[in-house]
Amino acid sequence: MNIRKNVIVATLALGGVAFGGVVMAATPAAAPMAMSGMNWFGGPIYTGAPALDVTAALVVAGGGANNFDFAKALVSMLGEKTVNAEVAKLNKQYGEKDVASFIEGMTFAVKAGLTRATEAGVKLPAAPADLKGVKLARTLVSAGTAPDGVWWSGYLFDKALSNPIHVKVMIDIDTKYGHGADENTHKILNQAMFDVAQALKVPGVKLAPLH
Asked: 68 Cβ partners below 8 Å, 6+ apart?
């Protein structure tokens, strides 16, 4: 486990702020990261109320909490032809191994996030009946776009359930798949969702430096 994760683990173990806020330092070592207000892999931390209705809609798109599959969610939102073209593009950019790891990592991240949310006493509402397909894709683009216009995976994950839950899931991913898996997931999602924004002609969305 690297120094960054040791800091976060110590912070969580010693007590961060309540659900929905920034994980504030319980030790001097953790203070610089927490006070910076930045996520591990770039972009600001979102500290507002989580968009649980959007999270619920994404879960439904992917087959439900027990059978969630990120690839299925993408096809549900964008159609098989568009998804296949994007996966082919990402394979050329990153290699098939990393793209497969990204898709698997996103499936795991949603499932782990739901588990962590349950542990925290968070219950998802029913998904809005009209929040599906392209409308859901546009909503995810909007949800992950920071105030400066850059689309960040971390900003979306914070907004989906909260920053403290996001941090725990990041640790879960690297624990299961090995160091670097979580960064790969964030990196490729940054690129993929930027591509979605361009395909849907969402104005003003910028590509994150980590891509």
From this structure: 59, 62, 107, 110, 111, 114
pTM: 0.83
CB atoms within 10 A of CB 144: 28
The verdict on residue 210 lying in a domain is: no
| Structural domain count of the chain | 1
> CB–CB of 47/53 below 8 Å?
no
Give DSSP secondary structure letters for 182-209. Answer: HHHHHHHHHHHHHHHHHHTT-TT-B--S
Residue 205 lies in a domain: no
Is 1 within the bounds of a domain? no
CA atoms of 68 and 39, how far apart (whole Å): 25
Q: How many CB atoms lie within 10 A of CB 204?
A: 7
Judge whether 50 lies within some domain.
yes
The answer on pLDDT for 143 being more than 60 is yes
- pLDDT reported for residue 23: 32
